[in-house]
Amino acid sequence: MKDEQEIKEMVKAKYGAIVQQSTQPNQSSCCGSGCGCSNVEFSVMTDDYAKLPGYVPEADLGLGCGLPTENAQIKAGDTVVDLGAGAGNDCFVARSIVGENGRVIGIDMTAAMIDKARSNAGKLGFKNVEFRLGDIDKMPIADDTADVVVSNCVMNLVPNKQHAFAETFRIIKPSGHFSISDIVLQGQLPQELRDHVLLYAGCIAGAVQKDEYLRIIKEAGFVNIKVQKERKIVVPRELLAKFLSADQLRQLEKSHVGVLSVTVYAEKPGNKGQVVE
After folding, report:
1. N or C: which end of the chain has fewer CB within 10 A?
2. Digit-coded pLDDT (tens) for 59-94
3. How far does Cα 29 stand from its chain's mean position?
4. How confident is the model at residue 12, as a pLDDT?
5. Per-residue pLDDT for 15 more than 50?
6. In this model, does residue 23 exceed pLDDT 70?
7. Which of 263, 265, 181 is nearest to 229 (CA)?
8. pLDDT attached to residue 199
9. Is residue 174 in a domain?
């Protein structure tokens, strides 16, 4: 596996290319075209946003694996931060809930995504939605800013998830919370899959075990952690066959290894307006 900075640069390059494409080819791949399997003619990751208030089709690049805003318990007037905001999809859904008196901040490390999101917000005339260029493991956001944090299929792309969740804890107000959709594993993927950088950008190789994921959240200081939604992702055989031999593929299919989409909720302890020691 490459080092953290190399992985970040690879992810930036892949998602910078994705933003230049239309939504349809992204949704017809395993997790956007970044995974190198854009000929797979069905989506196995994405959920349908069309039913949600505030949905903006032009901002939906088909790169998510859940509907975190649907389960985030956002209220009118809240400040919401979206980690890995992409073209602004979850930010615009959140904005429809927080209203004119709320605030939404989207963070993304890919400059092309930020440009696209800002363009979308400008066309919509939104004054209380902003987008900032920055890494999730070192966010350009002050302490205790967010009432709610959301994120959709992004934490799995961050090499150092401990730093990412520590930063998430830092920016959430005391008694605030997050709802994050992500990809996790049950059982060990073959080394050939875990090491492949194309699958890292495609949301699979960067994922960790479900138990480890929840442990990282707890160790960051969060409480009342619960899995709000969970579903198994069926990774296309066509994709797996690019990286595994026929024997390895048969062994994997007989195993109990699973790739899961989960939406996780957790709270930062303390009282709003008070510093947590």
Report:
1. C
2. 888 778 889 999 999 999 999 999 999 999 999 999
3. 16
4. 67
5. yes
6. no
7. 263
8. 54
9. yes
Burial 163-188 (b: 16+ CB within 10 A, else e): bbbebbbbbbbeebbbbbbbbbbeee
Q: How far is CA 210 from CA 171, 187, 194, 238, 260, in A?
A: 24, 9, 15, 25, 8
pLDDT value of residue 252: 74
pLDDT at 257: 72
Range of 94's domain? 4-267
Residues of the chain above pLDDT 70, percent: 75
* Domains contained in the chain, number: 1
Q: What is the CATH number of the domain that holds 80?
A: 3.40.50.150
Does 275 reside within a domain?
Answer: no
Length of the chain in residues, anyone? 277
pLDDT band, residue 259 (cuts 50/70/90): confident
274 domain-assigned: no
In a domain, 277, yes or no: no
Residue 14 has pLDDT above 80, yes or no: no
Q: In whole numbers, what is the pLDDT of the chain averaged over residues?
A: 81
CA dihedral of 38, 194, 182, 135, whole degrees rounded to 10: -90
